[in-house]
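Backbone shape codes
____________________
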Amino acid sequence: MPVLGPRTLLATIALATTLTLTACDPAAEAEAPPAPPVPSAASATVSAPASSTSQAGSGKHTLAEAATAGGLTKATGAGAVSDVPVDPGEMRDGMHLVVADYNRAGQTSGRRILFVGVDSVPEDPNKRREHLWRGLIDYALQNGSTGTPTTAKPYQPGPFGGSLECLSLPESASTTDVICGWSDTTTAAVALFPGTTPADAARLFAAMRADLEH
């Protein structure tokens, strides 16, 4: 290895120092183009589950009787419901109560589908639905239904959003009565579907709702 003289050694040290300072110079780093931003996980779009409350349920809706609801025909004349078989809870000024029973296509006898609903609910509509549910279960058990209510399950609520759930009243392997209920920001309603399945009752109830709620 060659021996450097004093002047050569000093020049070598000065050059190394200059290179080191340039590499650490903040100004030199600032001239480099910034790295592209990393997408944030929080900004990812997450789809809401099917059972969640829809935006359509955030507005004020009202209920009104309909001659046909979900393809069903409102019963009239002798044998049609003429009183209020289920306690709807406290009714205040501005609230509407709708009670009606409906015939399936071609039905001329037997138990009909009973509907009970209220709008402009002043308290949490879910609590009003629970009140209606309990009353309709008592009514069903006194009018031909038997068995212990199952746990309510959520189903698609339809275009008005909110929540729609159904439970069954088991009687035998082939016959089951189902009770469905919906609630949104201002309405709550329930219906008794004799001899059907929860899934079929839920689809029919959502279709009825499209004609009864406005």
Q: What stands out?
A: Strands lie at 68-69, 72-74, 97-103, 113-118, 153-155, 163-170, 176-183, 188-193. Residues 149 and 169 are 5 Å apart (CA to CA).
